[in-house]
Amino acid sequence: MSPRRSYDQYCSAARALDLVGDRWTLLIVRELLAGPRRYTDLHADLPGVSTDVLASRLKDMERDGLTTRRRLPPPGAVYVYELTGRGRELLPVLQALGAWGAPELGERRPTDAVRAHWFALPLLRALEGEGLVEVRLEEGEFHVYAGMEEGGLVYGEGPAPREPDARLMLGVETCTAVAQGELSLPDAVRAGSVEVSGEGTLAKALREA
Predict the structure, then answer these.
(1) Can you list the positions of beta strands (E) in the chain?
(2) Phi and psi at residue 26, in whole multiples of 5°?
(3) How far apart are alpha carbons 156 and 160 in whole angstroms?
């Protein structure tokens, strides 16, 4: 485990960056907001990170109380990493950082990787109301817990674990416009860029907005 580097400044922002300012750390938090993940899952969804760097960051995060590692019971019997309560407190930090960085998205470059669930946090910012929402993009499906947390989860990959309050079908371009604040979700629904289904309160509110 590498020794913790420090800015050696008596400032809360500097102290925070001592813990999460290293490259990849906040993106690991982004992935773990979906719940416990295996090392191989994290490596697959963090394209560009080396195995050595990922292992080092995870050890540092465990030492600093941001994550824990546990072994699943049989038949899984594999180790998973998950956020602690302290780690989950970084959600609003990531949300603010994502909102601030949204104007930098621009056109997707040929070298840019994309995963469907990377749009979960931007959509959470855009959703008003409370409920379980299933989202389908060309790249895949994910679900988000709008205005709520369920067992510490903020979002998850794949279909919703139960009947969602709303289902959304849209494209990456629309997701990007919503994330950048160029288009509100209700406006996108009215324009036909987002298909809404479901009988929950949130679905009805989106259709009637």
Answers:
(1) 67-71, 79-83, 131-137, 140-146, 155-157, 166-170, 194-197
(2) -70, -30
(3) 8
DSSP string of 91-120, one letter each residue: HHHHHHHHHHHGGG--SPPTT----GGGGH
C-alpha–C-alpha distance, residues 21 and 127, integer Å: 29
Q: Which residues lie closer than 8 Å to 53 by C-beta, 6 or more apart?
A: 23, 24
Q: What are the tens digits of pLDDT across the range 161-209?
A: 999 999 999 999 999 999 888 999 999 999 999 999 999 999 999 988 7
Contact 200, 131 (CB under 8 A): yes
pTM over 0.90: yes
Q: How much helix, strand and coil, in percent to the nearest 5, is found in the chain?
A: 40, 20, 40
What are 52's two structure tokens?
Answer: 């050595």
- Look at residues 15, 140, 25, 122 and name the one whose alpha carbon lies nearest to residue 81: 25
Q: Which DSSP string corresponds to 20-41? A: H-STTHHHHHHHHTTS-B-HHH
**Three-state DSSP state, 170:** strand
